[in-house]
Amino acid sequence: MSNPEWRSVGNGHLEGPIPIPDLDPSKLTITLSESLKPIPEPESLIFGGTMSDHMLVASFDPVTGWSAPEIKPYGPFTLDPASSCFQYATNIFEGMKAYVGPDGTPRLFRPDKNMTRLARSAERVALPPFNSDALLELIKKLVVVDKKWIPNLEGHSLYMRPTIIGTRASLGVTASDHALLYVILSPTGPYFRTGPKPISLLATTQNVRAWPGGTGSHKLAGNYTSGFSPQRKAAKQGYDQLLWLLKDESGWKVTEAGAMNVFVVVGRDDGDIDLVTPPLDGTILPGVTRDSILAITNAHTAGKLTLPGIPPTKRIHTHERPFTIADMDRWLEQDKLQEMFAVGTAAVVAPVGRVGFQDEDDSKIRDLLLPSYEGGMGPVSWAVRKMIVDIQEGRFEWEGWSVRCE
């Protein structure tokens, strides 16, 4: 059953407790499309540009709870113009992927992490709660229905976008007690068309992606729109993405790159390496890829697995701690900064080749140039990407991370 607090008492206010229906996979209805779309060649795919034949939909009413879920042909919705999602951005989502395993069975990568984060995001913007296990079961059924849309080519996948939007039809400034949950699927190839070629980042001191006490640690639609204009300006200056900075007493702290988490590889005097990423301080999104990289590099150092191309004796010391653009500059001068890469569900791992930064007392942008490697990726970024993709696509089994859809 859903959270018993959800009971409408008028004007958008909720009281309880009364039990109301939660998401129930046993009530799922499936209506297959009578007009199937042609499936494009994998090499022609643009991220998010093509949708599969079907989608999953369920709605929430404060009196009747969650409706019986439906898998039905992909198509538009009809929503009231006063809906909360339009007026107050009560929109949350997740990014997940489905892959084809060696046996032809669709697989998901650590989907429990996405469900947990989606539930946290719903709570943060006061959207109705839902049963995460039930939603995951429904997502698996949707993937099975549209499994032919999963590109059977390395580095390609079926991107999934579970979304919940507030649909309370009122201009009252309050939480939405009505909601629409839907999941859409999009076959995709590499996020960056540059392939393994390093991307460039422009560090921005004029705008921030997130701030202490804000919503940066949740996957809300509103977190992304503020980056569109600065991203456009960065592109005009020849950079692929933004590097978001946040200033405190230590200086300009590195936070995220575009919509991705960030790692740097720093050499140590003892021959080992430090792998550093900003901490989850409330301004950083707890990325599934980020968490996976920390886990597998720790496992490598503990001798539980060996990362491809990295000697077992090469220890990788992981650190979740702040670092600044000045730290990066100093590490480069000391020949210690070996790699920088950005990570996320869409891109997996994207190496960084240069970072543009404008000092406060200088009108010109200067580039911090990262070491270059044959093939575009450094040994650590290549190793963690190779390991994660092998797990995602079922070539390497690890900790139950690859979940079959049957």
Automatic annotation (TrEMBL):
Keywords: Amino-acid biosynthesis, Aminotransferase, Branched-chain amino acid biosynthesis, Pyridoxal phosphate, Transferase. GO terms for cellular component: mitochondrion. Its cofactor is pyridoxal 5'-phosphate. One of its GO terms (biological process) is L-valine biosynthetic process. CDD domains: BCAT_beta_family (cd01557). The modification N6-(pyridoxal phosphate)lysine is found at residue 219. Coiled coil: none annotated. The keyword 4Fe-4S does not apply. Its EC number is 2.6.1.42. Residues 1-20 are annotated as: Disordered. One of its GO terms (molecular function) is branched-chain-amino-acid transaminase activity. It catalyses: L-isoleucine + 2-oxoglutarate = (S)-3-methyl-2-oxopentanoate + L-glutamate; L-valine + 2-oxoglutarate = 3-methyl-2-oxobutanoate + L-glutamate; L-leucine + 2-oxoglutarate = 4-methyl-2-oxopentanoate + L-glutamate. Belongs to the class-IV pyridoxal-phosphate-dependent aminotransferase family. This is Branched-chain-amino-acid aminotransferase. It comes from Gymnopus androsaceus JB14.
